[in-house]
Amino acid sequence: MRAGHQATGPGAITPDGCAVELYSRLPVGTEPDVIASAVPAGAHILELGCGVGRVTHPLLERGFTVTAVDESPAMLERVSGARTICSPIEDLDLGEQFDVVMLGSFLVHAGDVEVRQALLRACVRHVAPAGCVLIQREGEDWHNDVPRERVDPSGFTVRIVSSEPAGDGAHSVHAEYEFPDATWTQTFLSRPLAREQFEEILTEAGLKVDRYLTDDRTWVRAVPAA
Ligand SMILES: C[S@@+](CC[C@H](N)C(=O)[O-])C[C@H]1O[C@@H](n2cnc3c(N)ncnc32)[C@H](O)[C@@H]1O
């Protein structure tokens, strides 16, 4: 388990506390539409932290080619139709460049600054000079608006129970996913990043914001700064 991450619930759990069975049940939202609106048709997408392919599969259906990366073999077993690579993102060095590199699921908020820097370096290493990096970041009041819950129409409830300072600017977030027949919990470290801080860390990594893709600025299209 990665430091500061814990989880409970049935089935295999990834080093960052994600449950494979839970992610197999979660429906996809607007992510594929947001992504499709920001990249050329038929682009080759390097998806970092793909999980079971919740977003990968709709992207394949839309005609994109996807290389899907995750450090969990149990997650990758459920991905079909994409080339899969089992690796920590930090260590990934494929010697290839992609039209699009995608760092979704708020991974840019890694609690450990060195991990975050390594994630962004992996994005920069793999993006083509004329390509883009799509990043999903947390909403502005994400850590203040707690506790909160959302009842999904498909029949489960997700709760962000708490977000407590855990030292050095990181927060420990506790989440619960309650289904009629199973409950999963996840505790993970997340480093809040206001818009200015987020843009600064992109600059440090050699990227710049091209545009925000959603009104809440949670999806970002970044490009190489040089
Ligand atoms: C929250 S899940 C989301 C999965 C998928 N992106 C989705 O939206 O359904 C995060 C996934 O990223 C993977 N992951 C997290 N940090 C990683 C890292 N540093 N290197 C490789 N995989 C990582 C986990 O194993 C997990 O499958």
From TrEMBL:
GO biological process: methylation
Entry keyword annotation includes S-adenosyl-L-methionine: yes
InterPro entries with a match to the protein in the record: Methyltransf_11 (IPR013216), SAM-dependent_MTases_sf (IPR029063)
Transmembrane segments: none
SUPFAM superfamilies: S-adenosyl-L-methionine-dependent methyltransferases
Pfam families: Methyltransf_11
Domain Methyltransferase type, residue spans: 46-134
CDD domains hit by this protein: AdoMet_MTases (cd02440)
Protein keywords: Methyltransferase, S-adenosyl-L-methionine, Transferase
Molecular function as annotated in GO: methyltransferase activity
PANTHER family: METHYLTRANSFERASE, UBIQUINONE BIOSYNTHESIS O-METHYLTRANSFERASE, MITOCHONDRIAL
Protein's recorded name: Class I SAM-dependent methyltransferase
Organism name: Streptomyces olivaceiscleroticus
